[in-house]
Prior knowledge:
cell division, FtsL/DivIC
Amino acid sequence: MVPIRWVLFWAIVGLIVAVLSTALLREWSRVRFLKETLSQSREEVKSLTRELERAKERLDFYRTPEGKARLAREQFNLVLPGEKIYKISVQSGDLLREALP
């Protein structure tokens, strides 16, 4: 028969191993989750950095005289002196428009 102290010793050792292994598994799971979160955050930062660079490039362009002229043409329909303005009107022989009330 095995002495009771050896049974108690191995029970305590088993308990300690179980507690430590559970803690280790939880930490590994937490590290994996944090790595995934960090990876996603890095991708988001890269995306936002690219977007910021594009916005800075557009801003730098619109600060130039050519950029200001383009903005004036696109947003405010302005023209330079001496330019001709052509108005295009489309006339359709579509019967569907006449049928609508």
